[in-house]
Amino acid sequence: MTAIYLIGLREGLEITLVVSILVAFLVKSDRKPLLKWVWAGVFVAAALSIGFAALLQFGIAQLSFTHQELFEAIASLVAVTFVTWMIFWMRRMARQMGKELRGRMEDAIQVGPLAIVGVAFLAVVREGLETSILFYAAAQGAADSARPIIGITLGMLTAVVLGWLLYLSAVRINLTKFFTWTGALLVLVAAGILKYAVHDFQEAGVLPGLNNLAYDISASWPPDTWYAELLRGMVNFTPAPTVFETIAWLAYGIPVLVLFLWPARTSKPAPEPVKSS
């Protein structure tokens, strides 16, 4: 549940920030009557995202065991791709996001209400569909089906409260540090999801080595302890992983984490022209 809470918090805060930027732009420019079109776009995007999550969760039950494993493996690979793209995109574009959204909304106002709905919808639905994919992939193997729902709900509610307090200027958060630390944790979560994908491919018979273990510490690793649950939920640590699972976790987790935490290059200011005397 911890990993799914983190996904809900991270993705939920991104959605909340996007919506608050659009709302603040209309409020400060004295265009409050247009807010209903923004909320309409947000509602449609939220409904589509929830419907997509339900389709993933319940539609797979109709598949055979082999097809279920293949579907879950492919969904996990898509989720890892989304996580990787999202954290690097946010690190690069966070400072320009507000300016870009305000520019799109200004252009949409000139077109009409449907364009405003479209801007809000497109700004939210991408994050919503990403959340659905990540939730489905991270919830695989949960012992209690209620825990993933509780985790994503608590994460989203926390994000909404934080976003509302930020909008009211009642709380100050260093968003750069927040997205850096949560991004680093999500890299570890994504490594665990990739490990899920490899295991599902092995279960489906696409990859060999299902019984070829890298190590086995099951005898000294009580599965019902809090730390075992935490590590399994966050990074999919298991006491007896296969060789391919271990290679996949290390091959993704270590280099991506190093690249993400590596200081971003900043462009040097252009030299001032020399004035002729």
From TrEMBL:
It comes from the Bacteria. It is found in: Membrane. The keyword Protein biosynthesis does not apply. The chain crosses the membrane at residues 6-27, 34-58, 70-90, 111-129, 149-171, 178-198, 243-262. Keywords: Membrane, Transmembrane, Transmembrane helix. It is a multi-pass membrane protein. Pfam families: FTR1. Its main location: membrane. InterPro entries: FTR1/Fip1/EfeU. Belongs to the oxidase-dependent Fe transporter (OFeT) (TC 9.A.10.1) family. This is FTR1 family protein. It comes from Paractinoplanes bogorensis. The lineage of its organism: Bacteria, Bacillati, Actinomycetota, Actinomycetes, Micromonosporales.
